[in-house]
Amino acid sequence: MPFAIEKVREGSTSRDVYLHNQNSCDNPLGYGWSLEKHAHVSIPLVLRFFISTSVTAVFNAYGTLLVEINPDHPATVSATSNLFRCILAAAGLAALDPLITALSPRWYFAVFTAILLITAQMAYFLQSRGVRWRQNRTGIKTGEEHK
User: Fold this and answer.
1) Which of 3, 75, 88, 139 has a CA positioned 20 to 30 A from the CA of residue 68?
2) Where do the TM regions start and end (predicted)?
C-alpha cells in the first residue's frame, strides 16, 4: 500500500522547514531596517547569511518533495521548479530598484516580508491538501482517509 509522502516529508522536516520559513520571512525586515539606518556593514551581511541559508533549506526540502511526488518525471519537475524560481527572482529584481526609490529600503523589505508571509502559508496548505491532490492525480489511495 502506498504511503502519504507529503505527510512523511512534512512530518520529518516540518519543524526545520517551518523554522527556516519563519527565518526567511522575518530577517528581511531587519535587513531593510539596517540598510535604511546605515548600520554597520556586518549587520546586513549576517542577516543575508541567515536569509540565504533559510531560503536554501526550504527550497531543497520542497524540491525533494516535488521529485518524490512525481517519480515518473523528476527532471521535468526539477526544471520547471528552477524555471519558475528564476522567473520570480527576475521579477523581484526588476521591481527592486523602482520600489526602493519610490519607498524606502525599510518599507520595500516590509512589503517583501508581507509577500513572503502570504506565500509561506503554502507549506501548511500542501500538508493539508497534498495527499488528496496526489490521490486525484494518480488514483491511488494512501490510507489517510482511515485516520
Assistant:
1) 88
2) 41-62, 107-126
